[in-house]
Amino acid sequence: MKANHPTDLLPAFALGCLDPDENSQVAEHLRRCAACRAELQALEEVSVHLAYAVPSIEPSETVKKNLLATCCSQRSFAWFETLFSRWPRLIPITAMASCVLAVVFTTSSFLLLKDVNVSQPVTIADLQLVPLQGAEVMPQAIGQLVVDTTSGQGRLLVNALQPLAKSLQYQLWLIRDGQRTSGGVFSVSQNGTADVLISSAWPLAHYDSVGITIEPYGGSLSPTGQKVLGGRMLL
Amino acid sequence: MFFSRQFLMTVFLGTFGRGNNSAKKTLDDNGLVEQMASGDEQALEILYERYKGLIYSLMLQILGDHGQAEEVTQDAFTRIWRQASGYRTSRAAVKTWLVSIARNRAIDVLRKRRRRVDENSAMWVDGVLETLPDIGTPEQNVEENDMRRRVLAAIAQLPEEQRSVLALAYFEGLSHSKIAERLQQPLGTVKGRVRIAMRTLQGRFTKGF
């Protein structure tokens, strides 16, 4: 070594042939000596030039194919790697932010789950959705009342109701304090669906529940047949 | 005026150039690595085409096995791809970085295996090759073949005892003491031969390249 600079050892360090103890000493010196780092850089160039001293042979095409397949699969993570390698302080910040977001989303999802109950009406802006569930005679039947809370008018949507004989129709009943008022009669398609404009002298919020029964064609003054769908308004 | 042509080319390609393979071929190694850092696999493909012969040939010389040489070649380029975002031009040229990664990896494999497949020490090619195989583009061939001739000529001029210690260090990754043991030479002699060989080559490469 000259004047505490490991000049004589740098060529071997560039080649990677120093024994471990000398290698550690030189590595330690290089951490604090810019002049030796510059000298090492020049010697590493020599090491690269030596690679040209071997017979030139091409690898098979498989290497390129595998390389591109491997690297393309990692491409989606390159943006994060770039970001985090340039600003490593972002790693704990991002981790903490992710944890906070996870807690927020979990809590909000839990609260939402508590609020959204399929047996309860749901309000979307000026619309209220009232779910109807099939009774024992048609458990597969489902329906929905879509009520405009501003005008009080609404539509009935049903699905999976059995098509009826020509002499029969379904009838919607609007119920308040046990009193039943007809909301209209309707038939369903071969698929069991129907979309009916509800006929009511009062805003639908006036009623506390609804029911659908099977009645003679044209409807009845009061329910006479079996109930097939029902639900509570709770507007 | 304020930005280098290379910088502007890199920014342009980064913004509009996805898929413009021919324009990227004009980028230097640093430009390609910058593109790779943003996830551009075409830049990787170009860099691979540029250095596949150099890296694979060296891997084969070190390992003496085609399968392992291909595996380490692929691994070296994969590492470059993964570490592209952390590359700093001030530390080393891309080629130096690539050769170092590949050679270190090959020597690791060799050490784990404890010996070369053919059980013979890898040595320098004797003399100056008159005919070298064509690889890559015509310009690349001319440049690379010229480089090979110059390097082989420089090595050929070294005394045999320096050539042999250099080969054991470079191709087998042996330390000073292991080389001394293998050649049954004093440790100090081996250290001196390595140092003189490297300094001589440094002088010749600086003058002639």
Largest sheet of chain A: 9 strands, antiparallel
Helix content of chain A: 25-40%
Q: Report the count of strand segments of chain B.
A: 0
Name the quaternary structure: heterodimer
Structural class of chain B: mainly alpha
- Tell how many strands the DSSP assignment of chain A holds: 9
Question: Helical element count of chain A?
Answer: 6
Largest sheet of chain B: none
What is the string of helix and strand elements of chain B? HHHHHHHHHH
Rg for CA atoms of chain B: 19 Å
Describe this structure in words.
The complex is a heterodimer of chains A (235) and B (209). Chain A has helices spanning 10-15, 20-32, 34-50, 61-74, 78-86, 90-115, and strands at residues 122-124, 127-134, 142-148, 154-159, 168-176, 179-186, 194-197, 209-216, 227-232. The model of chain A has no long low-confidence stretch (mean pLDDT 83). In chain A, strands 1, 2, 3, 4, 5, 6, 7, 8 and 9 form a nine-stranded antiparallel sheet that branches. Chain A is an alpha+beta fold and 235 residues long. Helix content of chain A is 36%, strand content 25%. With 209 residues, chain B is mostly helical. Chain B is 71% helix and 0% strand. Chain B contains ten helices and no strands. Chain B has helices spanning 5-16, 21-24, 29-37, 41-63, 66-83, 94-113, 138-156, 160-172, 176-183, 187-208. Residues 11-18 of chain B have low confidence and may be disordered.
Question: How would you describe this structure in keywords?
Answer:
heterodimer; A: 235 residues; alpha+beta; nine-stranded antiparallel beta sheet; 6 helices; 9 strands; B: 209 residues; mainly alpha
